[in-house]
Amino acid sequence: MTDRLEGIPTNIISGFLGAGKSTAILNLLKAKPESERWAILVNEFGEVGIDGGLLTAGGDGNVFIREVPGGCMCCTAGLPMQMAMNMLLARAKPDRLIIEPTGLGHPFEVVNVLSTEHYKDVLDIRATVTLVDARKIADERYINHQTFNEQLEIADVIVASKSDLYADGDFEKLEAYLNSKGWLQERTLTQSSGEGLSSPLLEQEAKTWRFKDATGEGAKVGSFPIEEPAMAFPPEGFVRLSNQGEGFISHGWIFEPSLIFDRKAVYQSLSQTKAERIKALVRTNEGSVGYNFAGDAPSELALESLEDSRIEVIATESFDVEKLEQELLKAAGKD
Predict the structure, then answer these.
(1) Domain spanning 8-202 has what CATH number?
(2) According to the model, what pLDDT value does residue 212 have?
């Protein structure tokens, strides 16, 4: 590409906690043309930043990822999102940009940032894709959650994810719910099982976007430093960071690189933790491993290398944080 950033095809891939966004993007990366450079901007509700490490496993050297941890990246007039996106675009000069907001973020605010005059020529906005697990329609905690509904309303394409796990009638209940809201009049509804999204979905036009008034010009591309200082660990060898909002609570740990975890012990501890969402990047005695738990069968992903270990738990109610922390430290040989 030239140094001029212009007309970059851009997609938002949205969805509530556990809908399968990261898995879907991983599968898209596997099908990415080798000659193309892709940039992925990831927002996480948790504070420690894990998705970037999981997505890196699907890259081929032409994938550039930047994370915005700690809640909705569009808060404070969208400045965190603008700063991160500008740094990412300046570094990657991509052929495609994918934005993955947190499952608890407000998608209309993401649209508001992208609608600023600054990005008018830089980005070519394509379809916003929202993943939804149709089984959640039976749970009032979801259908009564504002963000869950906003993600469906903002979509150009709605994908019923994990469809291979549905019982009879699950998809039909989702379809009926969307029809009751009038959301299928201008939107595409499709299904997807474990294989994730198909590339043609990304090329659909953004027909149903509802841009709010936006007068900000945004920061200039490349006007912020790209490199960040290395983390300094306390004597205990780890830090714990927490966040709370939208009816959920998160606790995340970052462990210094010298701590090596017992793989079986970590898997057992995480799989027995009752939470809405668990993600982890762990340096183990059997190599670096990524973990992904979202209520179904847990997955493990072999990684080439990790600079440190990170674990994030998001739950709808409080759980025994100290107990989990002690289990993790024990798995790392620190009683």
Answers:
(1) 3.40.50.300
(2) 46
